[in-house]
MIA2 protein
Amino acid sequence: EAMSRVQATTDYLGPDCRYLNFKTGEEIIKGKDFGYFPRDAVKVEEVLIGEEVEVLTKETDFLCLHEDKYTYE
């Protein structure tokens, strides 16, 4: 079973809380870290794992609160 693991090749600061922020050289593991980021900011490694982990989400995981207003796209 493969799990995606990527390493940041550049610093990235997302526009809001739905995006991951990271610095060059940091490792990002799908299933542990959650958020959007540009594909060209990382290099992908495939890693074999023994078990699959499902991360449950709900609609509010994709909301950002800015000055008492919700940003939802």
